[in-house]
Amino acid sequence: MVVQAEEGRLITSAARAFRVLVATAVPAERDAVARAFTTDSTTDVTGDSTVDVIAAGVGPALAAASTATALTTAALKGTPYTLVVSAGIAGGFQPEAPVGSLVVADEITAADLGAETADGFVPVTELGFGTVTHRPPKSLVRDLTAATGARTGAVLTVSTVTGTAARAAELRARHPRALAEAMEGFGVAEAAASHGVPVLEVRAVSNPVGPRDRAAWRIGDALAALTEGFGKFAPVLESWNPYDDPHDR
Ligand SMILES: O=C(O)c1cccc(C(=O)CC[C@H]2O[C@@H](n3cnc4c(=O)[nH]cnc43)[C@H](O)[C@@H]2O)c1
């Protein structure tokens, strides 16, 4: 397995070869994920699995553009990715996703892609356009959840970080299964879908979704949870057969 972040590279063996692109928003998240794979203890050069970790930018549009570029570049080189993962820190809906907990999305939903009407929010799908939800491969979500002890549920993608209890309640009323909100998952998923590649979203909770208190965000704890969670990924990826686990291409 080869892992490449800006400063990290690791080669190890793999039962089933995989080529994974992990897209975080910022470099601190990228490094937290890469740390999970770059240990000195694994150095077998026979494997051909790859994990590339990129800081794709904040927000769904930049995340989609950066992810699509990485996917196209790999495909043109003849080494296409087999899985894309949107990863990073997130706000957690309380009490289901406490600060420091890990969430693996079984649904990646754009929560503010639509129209505001006198009768409330209407998603673009009800206006006759596009999609608002991508669903990661079920068996992979199940196995990763079991391996990491993560919670599983919907992760919302928003362009505006929730800052009031009223907005948090509105989102939960519309998405009762939502465990977390972040700003990139849907963009990464759209890029992956356009390449026919399955997608995951993995988030570590740094703050509650609700009244804004940026000073209280526990970023260090969340980054540590991200590293710990990704540290348990490799064996699950090695035993995952994408062909047994169709996704919404
Ligand atoms: O300042 C730092 O050291 C630092 C380190 C790592 C990450 C950050 C970020 O600010 C990341 C922004 C990123 O986090 C997601 N996020 C986190 N909490 C929420 C939330 O409550 N609602 C929506 N998004 C959230 C989001 O994906 C941002 O892109 C700083």
UniProtKB/TrEMBL annotation:
Function: Catalyzes the hydrolysis of futalosine (FL) to dehypoxanthine futalosine (DHFL) and hypoxanthine, a step in the biosynthesis of menaquinone (MK, vitamin K2).
GO MF terms, alphabetically ordered: hydrolase activity, acting on glycosyl bonds
This protein's UniProt keywords: Glycosidase, Hydrolase, Menaquinone biosynthesis
UniProt superkingdom: Bacteria
Metabolic or biological pathway, per its Swiss-Prot or TrEMBL entry: Quinol/quinone metabolism; menaquinone biosynthesis
Gene symbol of the encoding locus: mqnB
Family annotation (CDD domains): futalosine_nucleosidase_MqnB
Keyword Hydrolase: yes
Protein name listed in UniProt: Futalosine hydrolase
HAMAP family in the cross-refs: MqnB
Chemical reaction(s) catalysed: futalosine + H2O = dehypoxanthine futalosine + hypoxanthine
Keyword Secreted tagged: no
Native source species: Streptomyces pseudovenezuelae
Domain Nucleoside phosphorylase: 49-214
Sequence similarity: Belongs to the PNP/UDP phosphorylase family. Futalosine hydrolase subfamily.
EC numbers on record: 3.2.2.26
